[in-house]
Design brief:
By secondary structure, the chain is of the alpha/beta class. About 35% of the residues lie in helices and about 20% in strands. The structure holds S-adenosyl-L-homocysteine (SAH). The site of S-adenosyl-L-homocysteine (SAH) has 25 residues, from helix 5, strand 8 and strand 10.
């Protein structure tokens, strides 16, 4: 027999991808087959490799039993072929996740498995809604209950009136469709109608909603707030002991807002993190890609003469990074950089050099090529000086022209990378963008704006999708947007991630 496969029964956590475990991530990255259902956040599936086979076994109400057996069959089928299978389940696999049945099926088929716990919804929702589950004075038991184990059964299986007597904190999963009945039973069991009661729906996600009230009012409040499954119902005195800042998650300044980022995926991380830290959801919609220059001969010539330049001028962080990468390939030692002075269009570009402890002597106050040229000319150091301009394949004409015509410099231009438009349909979050739209789309450069202009007509948003406002990283990008009849709703004075975040917070709060 060939080596048999392995099944990992993995908890995906409650929703927020960062609340999944390192082990879950590692297993998803390395599995051959990923069997998932709808509670596991689709973001986690992006960790899988390109050749991983992904199988959706999402359960729909009323068709539970048969599908469960099919899921077990699917797991066995792939594992006997020697595949490494991840069975990804929302929250923790052992909490109302039918994991026991899958383990049994695997046992019967003689297949090895491992269980990877996850953060279960009750704990995550409590944390993200600021609702303590225990308290020294009034909450010394915590119970996990289910409103129904089986969607096809009409009546409650748990005797809630008994739990009214246990007291402590009740965390009720799958309780929304029978909320009335559950409340009724608890009251019949003698629990106080005034006991603090909360519902958290879509916990830990950007669309998290909650109500915090008392048991006798919870049905009405849930209706008014239009709370829907998935949701956890909490009942107990401890949850009433929340702190003033208990609402930490939903009160973050960009909570519930969604932004599309247009720069290449490799470069979104800093802005993405800052927006997410403030509660926003970020869609990756890269509209350009950066390709290294093919002109090896020119690069070799420039490096051979590196000691002759008085200034090296960089118009983008991409160019700066690629220049340093090639520099180290050519010389391997920072001392070969020589005495050339460095000018950069903005802080992001300058940062690249500061990381090598190289001093950047000039950054214009407002980051445009024109301002950079003006400031350089004003140094009176350009006359007959050799100046190297390191750029992409766009937007360099004005800089070269001003340094040559006004500054009388001898300019060499090194187009070190090329910017190419990507097909928006290939973007990782393209479908989500069309389905839900976004509160804002953030253009980080003229090229991302131009790429959008070219493809905007093909975008057909679904009904109800939010039309994004246009956020521009700086004057040059805004100019491009306006020249193409796109309104600029929000603009940085100068390209800067921090300023963009501040402006967004300002605009949306
Ligand atoms: N194994 C899962 C629970 C599966 S049962 C876990 O450990 O969390 C499905 C129920 O979990 C839903 O009906 C809802 O009650 C709860 N649930 C799952 N994700 C949730 C979320 N993000 N917010 C609120 N409730 C959630």
């Amino acid at each position: 027999m060939s080596e048999s496969g392995m099944v990992y029964l993995v908890g995906a956590g409650p929703g927020e991808p960062k609340l999944s475990t390192l082990r879950a991530k590692e297993l998803i990255e390395n599995c051959d087959v990923l069997v998932y259902d709808n509670l596991a956040n689709p973001e986690l599936r992006k960790w899988a490799s390109l050749n991983c086979v992904q199988i959706d076994v999402g359960k729909s109400p009323g068709r539970h039993t048969l599908e469960q057996r099919d899921i077990e069959k699917t797991l066995v089928e792939h594992a006997v072929k020697g595949k490494v299978v991840v069975r990804l389940k929302g929250g923790d696999p052992f909490v109302f996740g039918r994991c026991a049945e899958e383990m049994l099926a695997l046992d019967e088929a003689g297949i090895s498995y491992e269980v990877v716990p996850g953060v279960t919804a009750a704990l995550a929702c409590a944390g993200y809604a600021g609702l303590p589950l225990s308290h020294r004075e009034c909450g010394s038991t915590i119970s996990f209950l289910t409103g129904h184990e089986d969607l096809s059964k009409d009546s409650l299986r748990v005797d809630f009136s008994k739990f009214a007597k246990i007291g402590g904190t009740l965390c009720i999963y799958m309780g929304m469709s029978k909320l009335d009945e559950i409340v009724q039973k608890l009251l019949e069991g003698g629990i106080s109608p005034e006991v603090p009661t909360a519902i958290v729906s879509n916990g830990t996600l950007p669309r998290q909603k909650k109500v915090v009230t008392t048991l006798n009012k919870v049905v009405k409040s849930a209706c008014e707030a239009k709370l829907q499954a998935p949701a956890i119902v909490f009942v107990g005195n401890a949850i009433g002991r929340t702190g003033k800042k208990g609402n930490w998650f939903e009160s973050r300044p960009l909570f519930g807002k969604r932004f599309a980022l247009t720069r290449p995926t490799a470069q979104v991380s800093k802005l993405k993190k800052k927006l997410e830290d403030r509660g926003a959801e970020v869609l990756e919609l890269p509209l350009i890609k950066i390709l290294p220059s093919e002109d090896k001969k020119l690069i070799a010539e420039i490096f051979a003469g590196i000691a002759t330049y008085e200034w090296a001028v960089f118009t983008s962080a991409n160019g700066a990074r690629e220049f340093m990468r090639l520099f180290f390939l050519a010389f391997g030692d920072i001392r070969s950089f020589g005495p050339m002075r460095i000018a950069c269009v903005g802080e992001g570009t300058a940062e690249v050099f500061r990381n090598y402890s190289l001093e950047v002597e000039m950054i214009p106050e407002i980051s445009t090529a024109e301002n950079l040229a003006k400031d350089l000319v004003a140094t009176n150091s350009l006359d007959s000086a050799n100046v190297l301009i390191v750029t992409g394949n766009r937007n360099r004409e004005i800089l070269v022209q001003m340094l040559e015509d006004i500054g009388h410099a001898i300019v060499d231009t090194l187009p070190i990378y090329e910017t190419d438009f990507t097909d928006i349909k290939d973007a990782p979050d393209y479908e989500k963008f069309l389905k839900f739209g976004a509160d804002g789309i953030i253009f980080t450069s003229s090229s991302t704006a131009l790429s959008y202009v070219e493809q905007e007509e093909d975008l057909v948003f679904e009904d109800g999708a939010i039309k994004p406002i246009h956020c521009s990283f700086g004057p040059e990008t805004s100019k491009t947007l306006r020249e193409n009849q796109l309104e600029v709703n929000l603009e940085c004075d100068s390209p800067s991630i921090d300023q963009m975040v501040l402006k967004l917070v300002d605009y949306f709060s």
